[in-house]
Input
Amino acid sequence: MHKVAFGQYANRAKKVQFTTKGPSRKQAIIPVHNNLVESIMGNTSTHIFQINALLKNVKSLMHSEFIYPCSGGITIVTNNVPNPSNLSIKIFQVS
Output
């Protein structure tokens, strides 16, 4: 019945089409103790502003878009792939 319904296409192997999305390279994962993640996430707009101001001071074309918590720290999503000089900037000061 299948051959009658689909004719010449009945014996062709079906090709599975799917894509998977891995982690973006346009992000910086910063290890932070779990107790500090809550305090950082409570004030994300201020932190994004400070990160962007620091990046502007070092004449970087990169800027941060948003921050979200991840396992063992926080992730800062950027508009570009960060280079080592961008990652060496001290961002958070915890007292």
